[in-house]
Amino acid sequence: MTERQNASEHVINNTLAGLTAQIQQLNQLMTGPAPAPTVTLPQVTTSPPPVNPPSPVPSTPTKQRTRPKLPSPPDFSSERTSGRAFLNSCTLYLRLAPEQFSCNEEKIFWTLVFFKDGHATRWSENLFCQEADTGIFPIQSWADFEQQFRSQFFLVNAEADAVNTLEGSAYYQGNQTVDDYLDSFLTLVSDAGYTDPRTLVVKFR
Fold this sequence. Notes:
It is a single chain. Among the domains are: 80-153, no CATH class; 158-203, no CATH class. Helix content is 56%, strand content 0%. It is built from eight helices and no strands. It has helices at residues 2-31, 83-96, 104-112, 118-134, 142-153, 158-167, 178-192, 197-203. The model has no long low-confidence stretch (mean pLDDT 80).
């Protein structure tokens, strides 16, 4: 009995030793060596190089149109012989500087400023008296003003007078300079309404 027990214990011990060795091997395989620490590198953000905005192209300055300084019309003294020249002078100024006048009333008032003497002054005063009575200036348009000015300050029978002068035998250059005679002749031709070149040649003497 004793030998069998000893033999059994020996077998059991060997078996336990083998099992213990296997368990240790399994533990080593399961645990294994500690993994190497993971090193996290900082993320480097690369930004594109700064781009300078394009330099603005200098704009070419706009050349403003320069207008010659316009002379004011002469003062008007009511003489019918100078009425046409005065109205032409005012009309020319108004056409060359329209930006200075915002309405017809301003054009008319500006023209009346040059009425300095005689019938012209009385006619201007009468217009303002009518405005004071009615509250409305009696002339509302530049065309109406021109028409009334012609009736008041142009020669009444300019066409007839010009025709009589050109057809008369007393009209000739005389002692006048060529320039003075030519100016006078052209004015008479315009007033008379002559347009036929043959007539003009005959009358120029």
